[in-house]
Amino acid sequence: MTETLVRPLKAGLIGAGIQASLTPAMHVAEGAAQGLRYQYELIDLLELEATQDDLPRLLADAEQDGFAGLNITHPCKQAVIAHLDNLAPDAQRLGAVNTVVLKDGRRYGHNTDWWGFAEGFRRGLPDADLSFAVQLGAGGAGVATAYAALSLGLKSLMVFDREPERAESLASMLSRFFPEAEIAAGTDLPAAMRLASGLIHATPTGMAKYPGLPLDRDLIDPRHWVAEIVYFPLETALLAEARRRGCRTLDGGGMAVFQAVGAFRLFTGLEPDAARMLNHFKTMTG
């Protein structure tokens, strides 16, 4: 800890369209509360006119600049794996990384997304009917949310994605880890929503850069609980519509905070105050 007081601890976030991210503020505030001089930078692919192909250079630059670690978000959570030296068991199992620790010249991949979503769900929808849920999205975030929901006891899950093969791949992978659950890639969303007790939204739709609804509004029924991963804006079009129809909802704030709790722990080696980080997030989002 003495070292961090002399030399600032650096971390950053790699992703596309991330200028509105609240992750830097959460890390810096918690660092200050724990006596750290914490610098957190945004490495925005859109601002840099970069792509996933630039990940090797961006990772090398971070190492050269003395970063302790990097958070990874859309669209790099799966692409970054090829450029890492070691994967923690959760990241290896999920095939997605949202946190990279840079230490002693090596790159260690972790996934704190799944625990972040699970913790937010436990707190925000404690009595949700977990008989059957539909999930939209089978990318890096979708892997984490599906894994989290099944870990919480979800009995049946149907996954939809614009790329059907991704949904099929995710369903196959999860079936190996949760053999007692029914997991499948979906082809008929209206039929699935008629049977579902809940909806997990795990695509970028609803973010400031990708506005709109991820499905036909008429598929949302008051009996559904609706869990969102997007947190900026906190009130997405999906959540607004779901609430208008009388659904129980969970915004993306919990996942955002609790994944940051896990990442802070990995970057600093210190135990973050989750309640303090959650309260800080609430002050930033009103």
Describe the structure.
The protein is α/β, with parallel strands linked by helices. 41% of the residues lie in helices and 20% in strands. It folds into two domains: 141 residues, Rossmann fold (3-Layer(aba) Sandwich), CATH 3.40.50.10860; 138 residues, 3-Layer(aba) Sandwich (Rossmann fold). The model has no long low-confidence stretch (mean pLDDT 95).
Quickly describe the structure.
The protein is of the alpha/beta class and 286 residues long. The protein has helices at residues 2-6, 23-33, 45-48, 55-64, 89-94, 113-124, 140-151, 164-177, 189-195, 237-244, 253-268, 274-285, and strands spanning 9-15, 38-44, 67-72, 86-87, 99-103, 106-110, 133-136, 156-160, 182-185, 198-201, 225-228, 248-250.
